[in-house]
Amino acid sequence: MQMDDELQSQMVPEEITGDDDASTESEALIEQFLAESGGGAVRDEGAVVAGGWDQELPPGHQSGFVALIGRPNVGKSTMVNALVGRKVTIVSSKPQTTRNRVIGILTEPNYQMIFIDTPGIHERPPHQMNKIMIREAVAAIPDADVILFVVDVSARPRDVEETIARLLREKAAKRPVLLVLNKIDQLTLRVAKARFAAYEALLPGRVGTIQVSALEGTNLDALHERLLTFLPEGPRYYPGDQITDQTEHHIAAELIREAVFRYTYREIPHSAAVLVEDYHERDNGVQYVAARIWVERESQKPIVIGKGGRLLKRIGSEARQELERFIGGKVYLDLWVKVKPNWRDEMARLRELGF
Ligand code: GDP
Ligand code: MG
User: Fold this and answer.
1) Which of 40, 62, 78, 307 could form a Cys-Cys staple with 111, CB 3.0–4.6 A?
2) 131: which DSSP letter?
């Protein structure tokens, strides 16, 4: 035990020995973080046409926003990744990892399609975070040229799907909504017809229904074709080589959060948050990234750190490799674990985290 502690202190010196004071010490960094990570896929007319992009575009160029809405775990991130063709959002076998509006950008010579991956909506919001998620999801609607209501047909419709459908009827009456029946690979023929009908009954006013498997890629071409019909003529909103508007800070935080979830299944369900406090290039060309993993309870700290710091090391190593793949360069990752009780319920702290 003693040895473990020593090892842990080596890995995470400040956090294990001295407790607290992170808030004052890193206030400036947090402000910087907020400045860099703020904003979502908001139409900013002023920023739309820059550097003569318009002149290179063919006549009839289309562009627009596609909002994905649906409860956690139905496959929204998987779908965006498959449509954009590169990993831009976080896929998890457990819900609620997409807390921010993460977008993917698909640019082709004739069009640009921008995906807004809305945070999940929950049946019973126990925390303020869930209220924020619903608010964010609703806020995504006016930006959208087309809304995808994504459901998982391997399961029956739940209350939350009725809530979403009502939300869409009330708040998105003038927007085209496409019902996307995902995970058809998981569906048995016997129940398929009734299952489709049950979902279709939720949203009589929709413009269409499409059955897909985001995971296996089934029918995604058809979905893509369908989406194109909803995009108005317009300019490129982003440079052609940009696939997300997330900052590197943000992407690093998401990759770390994903690794934490992967290795702490059950023990740390959704009580971990990640704050990237430093991200800069060192003289040798290596990207230096310092991040804190926030957990809610003291008892959760050793769960994330693991025996002898082994788990934290594995989490860090995996997140680092993912990040290196993403940015195409070397990364040095400094990971600390810190206890912040009830961070979920505190609006100010949520804002610090960029929610
Ligand atoms: P989100 O929370 O809606 O963004 O869902 P994710 O994209 O993170 O997916 C949640 C889980 O469902 C992951 O384990 C995915 O691999 C899985 N998944 C997504 N789409 C499909 C699908 O079409 N078929 C199957 N079998 N699994 C899927
Ligand atoms: Mg997601």
Assistant:
1) 62
2) H
What whole-number distance in Å separates Cα of residue 288 and Cα of residue 220?
Answer: 38
**Section 307-329 average pLDDT:** 88
213 lines ligand 1 (CB under 6 A): yes
Cα distance between residue 127 and residue 342, in whole Å: 10
- In ligand 1, the atom with minimum distance to the C-alpha of 218 is 23
Whether residue 142 contacts residue 106, with contact meaning beta carbons closer than 8 Å, is answered with no
Averaged pLDDT, 12-39: 34
């819900």: which residue's tokens? 95
By CB atoms closer than 10 A (0-12, 13-18, 19+), residue 248 is middle
- Centre of ligand 2 from the C-alpha of residue 247, in Å: 18
Which of the pair, 169 or 210, is modelled with greater confidence?
Answer: 210
Closest ligand 1 atom to Cα of 117: 4
Q: Are 75 and 182 in contact (CB under 8 A)?
A: yes
Residue nearest to atom 11 of ligand 1 (CA): 93
Q: Which ligand has the shortest distance to the CA of 187?
A: 1
Q: Does the C-beta of 72 come closer than 6 Å to ligand 1? A: yes
For the beta carbon of residue 329, count every other beta carbon within 10 angstroms.
12
For the beta carbon of residue 348, count every other beta carbon within 10 angstroms.
9
More confident residue, 202 or 131: 202
CA-based nearest residue to 29, from 277, 250, 279: 277
